[in-house]
Amino acid sequence: MTPLAQRIGLVIGDEVADALASGTPVVAMESTIFSNLGLPAPGNREAYERCVAAVRAAGAVAAVTAVLDGKPRVGLDAAQVDRVLEGSNKVAERDVPVAIAQGWAEGMTTVSASVALAHAAGIEVFATGGIGGVHRGVELTGDVSADLDALANHPVVTVCAGAKAFLDLPRTLEFLEGAGVPVLGWQHDDFPAFYSRSSGLPVPHRVETAAEVAGVLRSRLREETGVLLSVPIPEAAEIPAADIEAKMVRALQASEQAGVTGPKVTPFVLARIEEETDGESIPANLALAENNAAIAAQVARALVERR
Ligand code: PSU
Ligand code: MN
Fold first, then answer.
1. All domains of the chain in start order, with CATH
2. Hey, how many other C-beta atoms are within 10 angstroms of the C-beta on 157?
């Protein structure tokens, strides 16, 4: 147990605790993506099952993070997973202390909260679908996801399919550059745009192997800074950017018209995109999440092997 884990009363699930103690690779995952905030049922359960199976197939253990009954948790049992699949209360990193202190029944962790809890638990790899980023129109709203700050402040490798193209991807990459977060492209030259393999923006550094990713984390100059590994969606599941851009713009307009602000923006826009695409975006979302989980497990294994 780290001192931080002790101070916040972090509960580590038995399977995850055993894995950490025995040097078995562990991959953390967020709960927002599996809750009502991230994916509609039954796709959310399928996403969870496919991600866990992908991690297991690579010989690693999956550790979903959440706040349940006022306790921050890493590694959930089946009943707790069922609660996550029904969950709808989003918690970013800054909300977790409040959820603990006030004993909230439920908090679905975002990327920022998950990376922070993973670090507290001693887990070095985290897999998700897409990270939050700088929002389009940031000049007016100032909306920058806390995910980016968390990547800069926790020494965890986050494996993602880039960020959704409804964000401002050039500014998202600029932020990560300024924050000192290495951004790596998995066997690919371009930063991915979630449903699409390429955003048209070059990734700063390309890597070919999990060992290289592990080497980057181990060679960091700041104790506290993580690494972002971007993995393009598998080709067979890709939705061409041109097919989805207009739908994203409509979803963003709907959010603006409805006056949505703060943490409600991203879940609102995600739900609107699903409506706009008649659910066709869901299989792509599941395929990329599963693929990221599989690659994260390889990275976790490479980190264990370097110890
Ligand atoms: N992007 C997705 N699916 C998601 C999210 C982002 O494609 O479910 C969720 C993640 O939990 C991410 C959060 O950490 O949204 C970012 O929210 P915000 O933009 O409010 O920081
Ligand atoms: Mn925001």
1. 3-306 (3.40.1790.10)
2. 28
